[in-house]
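User: I'm new to structure prediction. If I give you an amino acid sequence, what do you actually give back? Let's try with this one:
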Amino acid sequence: MEEVHLGSITLTKYGMLYLEDYETAVISDLHLGYEDVMASQGLFLPRIQKRVILSLLEEIFSRYSPRQLVINGDFKHEFSRNMPQEWDEIEEVLEYITSQAEIIVVRGNHDNFLRGILRKRNIELVDSYTLGPYNFVHGHRDVDLKGITIIGHEHPSVSLRDEIYATVKIPCFLYSPDLIVLPAISIYASGTDITKSDFLSPILRKNKRDFEVFGIDETLGILPLGRLSSLLAPSGDY
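Assistant: Good question. You get back a string of structure tokens that encode the predicted 3D arrangement of the chain. For your 238 residues, that looks like this:
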């Protein structure tokens, strides 16, 4: 299926959460400029991520026509400065988004020098954003939950194994009535396997939930995988 409706919240095969009541699309963890950062460390990757993300955004706007788009942290990848590729790619993505909708950018832990890029377009970089009952924070810092809190940062994924023991790791949404975790949009963010690893986010470590898990597959779309407790290894404490 291409999407799952949970009241006024829609989880989509694009890794985008859509808030129908507010005509708002939410994505997280683009990590633009990743290839440039890896090249500076001697690992050369094809520079395809920007093209993939722009194609994804075009599909989102074509299908949902959101009035507003929230980037919930980690728009860029490099911690210490703005790499040339980051600057150029963020400018191009911003140009496309702002031609379609209002944009809200929530600060992630990778966004240390993002403010300088956004300032050219009079876009504010915010630590959190509230929209009706929804509270958006990236998730790298502990906060008190308010209303329905939506975070990124975790890059949640699930490893699936078939009958011949071939394994694939797919990104996923984690859903509970008051806390939702978004998958990473970056094609290079393979993610934390939530069935095998402790959570990275202090919010998730502090606020235990038996999330509903929804995997994302390019061909099959949204895959309801059941409760987190049913996927955990025997040592899991949910």
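You can read the tokens as a compact description of the fold. Here is one thing that stands out. Residues 107 and 143 are 14 Å apart (CA to CA).
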